[in-house]
Amino acid sequence: GHFLANVHYQKAAIEHKCEALIHAIRGGIPEAEDLIIAMGNNPEVGYKLAIETLEQTYGGSQRALKYSLHRVKSSPIVKKGDYASFSSLFRSLRQYLTTTQKYKRGSDFLHHETANIVEGRLGQAYREEFYLWLDTNPCQDRDKEGFSAMDLLRWGEARLKGMARAQEALFMDSVCSSEG
Fold first, then answer.
1. Which residues, other chains included, contact 129 with Cβ-Cβ below 8 Å and sequence gap of 6+?
2. What share of the chain is helix, strand, coil (3-state, %, to 5)?
3. pTM for this prediction
4. pLDDT, tens digit, for every residue of 109-119?
C-alpha cells in the first residue's frame, strides 16, 4: 500500500519507479533478483511484471478479502421492501464468501463474525423473518454458535427469489389491468 501510494501512482519516469521498487524489495523478497533482472532488460515490461508478481504473491488475496468484507460492512441497513439494498447486501456477502473460499482464508470465526455483521445490516423485520427461517430450516453444519454466514446467504438468496417473483407478479397484474 505504501509503495503504491508513494511511487506507483505518482507521475514519474519508469526508470525512477524501477529504482524505487528495487530499493523497496531488495533483500526482503526471495524472487527480488529475478524481478530486478526483468526490470533491467526492459523497464516498462519489467516494472509491470514486478508489480503484478508482488501483488499476486503478497497483496492480492489480502486486498480482495478486505475489499469484499468492506462491501459487506458498508452496506446500508436494509429496511423491509428495499429490494435494491437487500440484493446488494447479499451480492456482497456472496462475493465475500466466494473470495474466502478462493483464497482458502475462511474460518468458522470469520464466518460467524461476518454473519453478525450481515445480521446487523438487516432491519428488524428482516431479522425476525431470518430467525423464523432458522427455526424451520435445520442445517447439519450449524454449530452451537447459532448461525453462519452461509445460513444467511441461503436465506437471503431464497428471499431474493421470492421478492423477484412478487415483483414480476405485480408487474403482470399492472399490465393485465391496464389492458382490461
1. 159
2. 75, 0, 20
3. 0.61
4. 567 888 999 99
